[in-house]
Amino acid sequence: MTGEGALSVYARAKELEREGRSIIHLELGEPDFHPSAAVNDTLKRALDEGKDRYCAVAGVPELRQAIATYLHDTRNVKVSPDNIVIAPGCKIALFMAMLALVDPGDEVLYPEPGFPGYASITLGLGGIPVPFELSERNHLQPDPLEIATKITRRTKILITNSPGNPTGTVYTDQVQRRLVELAVKHDLIVLSDEIYARIIYGGQYVSLLNYPGMPERTLIIDGFSKSFAMTGWRLGYAVAPPRIAEALQMLAVNSYTCVAEFSQYAAIEALKDRDGATPRMVGEFAKRCEQFIHDLNRVPGFRCSAPEGAFYAWVNISDTGVTAEELCRIMLEEAGVAAIPGAAFGAAGADFVRFSFASSTVTLQEAVERILRVSAAWQGTVAAR
After folding, report:
1. Which long-range contacts (CB under 8 A, 24 or more apart) does 171-177 make?
2. Which residues are bridge partners to 86 per DSSP?
3. SS3 312
4. Residue among 136, 201, 139, 144 nearest 357 (CA)
5. In this predicted model, what pLDDT tens digit does every residue of 322-331 receive, in sequence order?
6. Bridge partner list, 316
7. Which helix (H) or strand (E) holds 384?
8. Distance separating alpha carbons of residues 321 and 380, to the nearest angstrom
9. For residue 216, what are the CA distances in angstroms to 73, 152, 241, 318?
10. DSSP-derived secondary structure letter, 153
11. What is the DSSP string of 231-289?
12. Taking Cα atoms as reference points, which of 195, 170, 199 lies closest to residue 280?
């Protein structure tokens, strides 16, 4: 298995901070918001009421029903609470789903650049990760023709991620329909990673579960970290067909037993979002995105288009004439700005750098000014080009 580039950069950035350096953290995908007061109050009340016991393995019934209602209201997805399994984090939901499905030698199709865990978990389970490229020439959309050429008799799983990390891509309806055709034709199981589904800038999000032929073969992986700014709470869930949901519950019995009861009751309050915290947060991200993308394009050698979702700027730095790794080193060590070299998300990301704009506008503007001050390290190369 492999680690995550974001966490490696974060570790080095924290070292520099301990040395007294000022560091702007744009490496982690962590909203700078916090849950509403109502969510925190519900957590405290649950503790006061003694909701700190072992509970149902798949999750408390009230939360599973709340998630089913939430998915219907926000994505027009109709699922049974019985098909939902709560996990201690979206990563664990993904890991358990793949543990239930991947046998040695199985091939798993996944987007590249993409979340590093897709390939890492596949390798750890003895599977074979098979990337399909999200390229600029295809507007960072999956290419169904490329995917079709990579399907073999050993292909079992197709992983999708829309809106995507690190590119911010939201798959078009045309692309999704082609992916559905391939999944049905080749009897593939689809893992639809929808952790950023609520963070979308324009248009209506459409889950793959909405398409004909997909409910019986699709798992939704989602959680509370991004859309509800609850990263440290470690709350995720999987929505799966009945036979797979049963397997996920068996894996839960043999691993984490259950998720903390009190946090599950707080999650119910988060889903209700009575004061509109999520739409307000997404509205703020949209404003930051517009300004930050504009500012990044002022940096010599940087080229970036606005993402359609999530909160990442995926910047092509090939015109700087230096590698993404060297550029990120310069930004961190000399400017105090932490970002992730694109190769951390797969070989297809080698000419890119990922910045998170889940920070205040003032912080983002300061980050760009710092980068501009050290850009002399590559400006000569840009001018020569």
Report:
1. 171/141, 171/142, 172/141, 173/206, 175/141, 175/142, 175/144, 176/206, 176/208, 176/211, 177/211
2. 237
3. strand
4. 201
5. 999 999 999 9
6. 303, 352
7. helix 376-384
8. 9
9. 21, 21, 6, 43
10. T
11. GGG--EEEE--HHHHHHHHHHHHTTT-S--HHHHHHHHHHHH-TT-HHHHHHHHHHHHH
12. 199
Whether 95 and 121 have beta carbons less than 8 Å apart is answered as: yes
320, two tokens: 């700087």
Which residue, chain included where needed, has tokens 């790794």? Answer: 325
Residue 285: which residues within 8 A CB-CB, separation 6 or more? 199, 201, 311, 357, 358
- C-alpha 361: how far from chain center: 22
The pTM assigned to this predicted structure is 0.95
pLDDT, one tens digit per residue, over 24-46 is: 999 998 999 999 999 999 999 99
CA within 13 Å, CB half, 170: 19
Handedness of CA 311, 79, 239, 174 (dihedral sign): negative
Report residue 262: phi and psi, to 5°. Answer: -65, -35
CA 23 – CA 163 distance, rounded (Å): 28
User: Can you tell me the mean pLDDT for 151-172?
Assistant: 98
Helix, strand or coil, per DSSP, at residue 196: coil
